[in-house]
Amino acid sequence: MIKRPTKSDIRNSLAAQVNEYLNQGGQIKQFDQGDSSLIDGKYDRNQFVYGLPKQQRTPISETLNVIDNRKKQHFTTISTKPKLRRVKKTIYDDFGEPIREVWVDS
Question: Fewest CB within a 10 Å sphere: which of 17, 69, 81, 100?
């Protein structure tokens, strides 16, 4: 069985990695509390759209109506009554012990 690392093992591993990074000359930037990547408290919209103009969308309502009509036609067929099947039913006594099996139409 593979032993999963505990939280303290993970914490110690991360601390060791940070110390190794700092010992090799790495620096950690300090930020003030409340600083974020938001510009004026809003997301940078250009990051998501890349400055491209809005594209024209293709209307598909007619296509969806045709598909829905096909589905409705498929389900309007005459349905027949399901055949009754015989099922084996077990009869139990008051203590939960099986007494006999009986075939029943379901």
Answer: 81
d(C-alpha 88, C-alpha 67), whole Å: 43
Taking the chain, what is the end-to-end CA distance rounded to the nearest angstrom?
A: 49
Q: Write out the H or E segment, with its range, that includes residue 89.
A: strand 86-92
In whole angstroms, give the CA distance from residue 106 to residue 88: 10
| % of the chain residues with pLDDT over 90 | 37
- Averaged pLDDT, 13-35: 87
Q: What is the dihedral of CA 95, 99, 103, 104, to 10 degrees?
A: -30
